[in-house]
Hints:
It is built from 14 helices and 19 strands. The protein is an alpha/beta fold. It folds into 2 domains: 2-179, Flavin prenyltransferase-like (Rossmann fold); 190-405, 3-Layer(aba) Sandwich (Rossmann fold). The radius of gyration is 25 Å and the shape is elongated. Bound molecules: cytidine-5'-monophosphate. Cytidine-5'-monophosphate is lined by residues 194, 254, 282, 284, 286, 288, 315, 317-319, 333-335, 348.
Amino acid sequence: xxxxxxxxxxxxxxxxxxxxxxxxxxxxxxxxxxxxxxxxxxxxxxxxxxxxxxxxxxxxxxxxxxxxxxxxxxxxxxxxxxxxxxxxxxxxxxxxxxxxxxxxxxxxxxxxxxxxxxxxxxxxxxxxxxxxxxxxxxxxxxxxxxxxxxxxxxxxxxxxxxxxxxxxxxxxxxxxxxxxxxxxxxxxxxxxxxxxxxxxxxxxxxxxxxxxxxxxxxxxxxxxxxxxxxxxxxxxxxxxxxxxxxxxxxxxxxxxxxxxxxxxxxxxxxxxxxxxxxxxxxxxxxxxxxxxxxxxxxxxxxxxxxxxxxxxxxxxxxxxxxxxxxxxxxxxxxxxxxxxxxxxxxxxxxxxxxxxxxxxxxxxxxxxxxxxxxxxxxxxxxxxxxxxxxxxxxxxxxxxxxxxxxx
Length: 407
Ligand code: C5P
């Protein structure tokens, strides 16, 4: 089974007998690593209770568009932004018609209008309804609007008919959702990502570090893997699970990270099949300076001298050294700044000889170091592009998509 690790799926359940299979579908999605939030139409609640789907998804089920309590919890626009994909299973003929024509008269149809993420639809209806010209026209509209259809399958139907219109089985729907995240845009590439902070030792118990959580780097590694790349993440001290299928090298200091990066690139460069297809993404918040000596014993307080001086020396600039390699990997830097974000980012592109830089304003608490959200501007020699505030996973996918488009 392909993984859906950390993917957020909004599951829309509409009114049809196949709604009972949504319970099993939630299980399959969660087994594959996804987080699921369920939205039910009024008709769906005639077939299966919100309580069942709430218990299985582990999240409150969203039912009403005009419900102030629910909107206060997670508003419909927030819910649209939360999801990495919107899956509607089962999708009734009526809902398909409303989706095809852009209706926005209930929570689920509004989400379909508001989301900028992929919409996947698993139709379920009687075979006569499926074949009807009106439904087939609506299906053509969905396809034209870039909506992905899953099924329907053929076979026995609840009404006794045999034919096309059964909802695809939950296992196969989960697989199709997982596949929809595999773009293949970086197949054949090796992506090396640095992530997290570095720790620069002062003595055996103290160090200098920063607030980087590593979340952005791990999300980038995962998005690169989903795009088909072979991915290595070189991580400073962070508490994040390694995404499945990603190789990980743990390091502590900037010097360790520098050595690990150089060794990793040397190894990749010996792989004939990958020559010229290496992408380096420096998301790590590398300490620019380290104490010039790492005391062998804990530094003690000196009652005669309340002030001590730490002498700092410059660390290697990992990304600038990567950009000097021949052949040069496609080199992507990050510019986390608290002021003049774009100006500093542009300066960094030329100073470090980068092919692209991702700039963000870490002074904004909503999108700062430890947040799950980010908003960035991507700058490359040909232009710039802003990715509005969204989960770090969505931003990571946007960054990887952009990197792919520049290859
Ligand atoms: O110069 P500044 O630290 O702002 O540059 C940020 C970019 O450079 C990031 O991509 C970061 O990972 C990288 N960097 C590095 N080695 C350093 C300092 C920064 O790779 N010593």
